[in-house]
Amino acid sequence: MNAEKRTVRAAPGRYQAKPHRRWPTRIVVALLSVGGMLGLWQYVAHEQAASAQEPPSIQDAEQQLQLGGGQDSSSFQGAPSAPNTVSGTS
User: Fold this and answer.
1) CA angle at residue 37 from 34 to 41, to 5 degrees?
2) Cα–Cα distance measured from residue 25 to residue 31, given in angstroms and rounded to the nearest whole number
C-alpha cells in the first residue's frame, strides 16, 4: 500500500474560527457610496448655474443708490470700513 501518500491531520482544537465573509460589508458600502453619489448628483443638478444668473444692470445699481437715499453716496452697504490710521490701530 501507499503509506507515504497518507497525510496525518492534526486533531481539531477546542475552537476553530470561521473564515470571515466580507462580501456583505462590501455590498453595503457599495450601496451607500452609490446612494451618496446619486444624492450629490441630484443636489448639483438642481442648483442654478452661476452663468445663468444675470449680472446687476445699471438700473439695479441706480435703484440701490436711490433706496439708500439718506446715506452718504460714497459708502456702500456691506463694504468693509477703511482702517483707522489716525489712532495707530487697524
Assistant:
1) 140
2) 10
The Cα–Cα gap between 38 and 43 comes to 9
What is the distance in angstroms between the CA of the first residue and the CA of the last residue of the chain? 100
Q: Which residues contact 44 (CB under 8 A, 6 or more apart)?
A: none
User: At residue 50, what are phi and psi to the nearest 5 degrees?
Assistant: -65, -35
pLDDT tens-place string over residues 34-84: 999 999 999 988 887 766 777 778 888 888 888 775 455 455 555 566 666
- Burial class of residue 50 in the structure, from the number of CB atoms within 10 Å of its CB (0-12 exposed, 13-18 middle, 19+ buried): exposed
Query: Would you give the distance in Å from CA 22 to the centre of its chain?
Result: 28
- How far apart are the C-alpha atoms of 5 and 3, rounded to whole Å? 6
Cα–Cα distance measured from residue 86 to residue 38, given in angstroms and rounded to the nearest whole number: 56
pTM of the complete model: 0.36
